[in-house]
Amino acid sequence: MIILPFLAVILAHILCIITSITDIKNNKISNKLLIIFGIAGIGLNIAQYVLKTNIIWGAYFFNLTLVIIFSLLLYILHIWAAGDSKLLIILGILLPANYCMLAGKVVPWSVILVAFSFIFSFIYLLLESIWLFIHHEGNFSLSNVKLNFKNFLFAYIRNIIYISFALKIENFFAKDWMNQYSWVIFGINISIILLISSFELLRKKPIVIAVLLSSIAFSIFTSEWFFSTSRLKYYAVAIVIMLLRIMISEYNYKTIPTSEVKKGMILSSLTTIFMSKATYEGLPDISHEDMRSRLSAAEAESVVNWGTTKNGMKSVQIVRKMPYAIFILIGLVVYSIIWWMVN
């Protein structure tokens, strides 16, 4: 019965629309809402099993497992909030098995969806930064790149090592799939470039050296080396992305009155370093500027109260909030369009 998979897809899109709205308005994704849609997804799957619909359950559970692992990984690495990870897991339950198929082949739709969401969120940040630059609300300058050219160069070499190693592995284990879905692989690899700098572990020299040696060993084994025409586009894209990230970072912060600090906000490292010198109790630790440093209700209240003291700050710097549920929605819509076109 084709109506059941179709209904599941519709529910998945409705869930993403609702969570996008609540994430933007309230900085929150409702657990109750996720549970309701999760139960609906399980019910639809049971109905499809009982009615013996034409479903490749192996592909469904493969992607569901991948979704759970991927979501937990993004949460553990503090890239996503818990709500975003849970949303992706519920989508894994809801979306039918035939959504795992493109042109008759099983594909990791969750990886593709997340890749699209990362790319669109990056585009959003870029456009926002350009808007702020036009309105003179930042201090971006190419002189910043020149002053830090050495760090920029090392970071670029590090990115090339990682992306080259990833391309070799992809080409070795999924060459046919890469050739058929080169645009998907390109999107995934762009996401890898975007994510590399987010992992502190990947910036450590021993890890970079280990990956470089592994890449060289892999090249000796497969005769695939760093420089090939197919990789030049990634090396060029890496430079562009790094320059854009520098620009975006200049507009990553927002100054607000201390009295307006609320639960869930993330203070800048500079602000929390200043706070660390205060003796006021309940203030947050030094900020990592990621999901680990989201303020609790008690910490937000302490910051507000500290701001009213003699040595407190009347304004603080926070990391600009980006509600991520809407980018998951965009990623799902784009994947759905591709799915309908290909199938």
Automatic annotation (TrEMBL):
For this protein, the record's InterPro entries field holds: Prepilin_IV_endopep_pep
Domain (Prepilin type IV endopeptidase peptidase) spans 11-125
**Superkingdom of this protein's organism:** Bacteria
Classification via Pfam families: Peptidase_A24 (PF01478)
Give the UniProt entry's GO cellular component terms.
membrane
Q: What is this protein called?
A: Prepilin type IV endopeptidase peptidase domain-containing protein
* Any GO MF annotation of the entry: aspartic-type endopeptidase activity
- Transmembrane feature ranges: 6-24, 33-51, 57-80, 87-104, 110-134, 180-199, 206-228, 234-253, 322-342
Assigned keywords, A-Z:
Membrane, Transmembrane, Transmembrane helix
